[in-house]
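Pipeline run #58 for the internal structure catalog. This entry was flagged by the ingest filter as a single-chain record with no existing model, so it goes straight to prediction. Upstream metadata was stripped on purpose; only the residue string is passed forward. Reviewer on rotation: M.T. Logging verbosity set to normal.
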Amino acid sequence: MDGICTLANDRVYDQLIALLNSIEAIYEQPMPVCVYPYDDNTTQIAAEIARRPHVQLYDDQNSMQQWDDFVRRVWDTHPTAQAHWLKISGDKYYRVGTHRRFCAFDGPFDRFVYMDADTLLMSPLDQIFDRLDDHDWVVYDFQYRDLSHVYDVSASKLTEIFTPEELQAKVFCSGFYASKKGVFNRQNQEIILEKLRQGESEILYAMAPDQTVLNYMVMRSEISHCNLSHELADHEKTGCCVTSTHFTTQDNILYDQGKRLTYLHYIGVKSRFFQQLCAGENVGFPYRDAFLHYRYLYEPNQKPQFTTKPKAYNAPPSLGTKILRKLGLKS
């Protein structure tokens, strides 16, 4: 069975609804979806999921515990990450829940597309699933243009472990990818851990933990890999991120120079801005209308209405906010 999966908790409640609604809008027949819980903060999303017969909240505790343990063992091999995380968060492990997406390798779908909760589906995923006939890993992004958010580019071993050609061809964003059940299991987990213990862990980028670990797992395992941004002809490929300012909208679908996007990723827009917007604050971010359309697809009367110019999500803080932050009175 094919399906789509994502990762969520109540902090991304509004984003999850928008994603689920976009999937339903694109597919005429219900597409099965599995939501992996980031943590135990799932009361709101569980209630929403219960209303959707084709959506399930993953509850295999053994699977989640096993992957949580694996990730901690991964970071136990890193020379500096835990000391750094202790300074910034007081915990020697950082964002462990973000690795729960790895449970898809145990999950209900034989083949799956993983989409971050801060994405919207814009097209059917036929071409992605088709590539899984010949590959175990399929992506569609341009992350290879910025290695610094995937690996520690200052690590001397990086180009010993991977060639420059491999880094260009195989690096990907962990917000959207397709794979198959069982591609990673306990046996190849141990192989990966052994390589990391031999000193290769120094190449991992600690501030994007799931992305760096997943890239390392895929690239070090040498599984068959396809990135449509390399494979498609220039007249076929599109962008996917809100950092691209030239997308146009027609009937709530985004286009890149006339070509329909596969998905839109609100990368860099923090979850609190979606929460604030849905609470009625006039927060502006790229392609906000698309998000609002899908978030309120089934309840358009509840969509916030604004008559003034929005305040940009990335606007510099006011003097008052700066003072409050300096005093520790505002985050």
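catalog note: The mean pLDDT is 94.
catalog note: Residues 1-331 form a domain with the Spore Coat Polysaccharide Biosynthesis Protein SpsA; Chain A fold (CATH 3.90.550.10).
status: ready for reviewer M.T.
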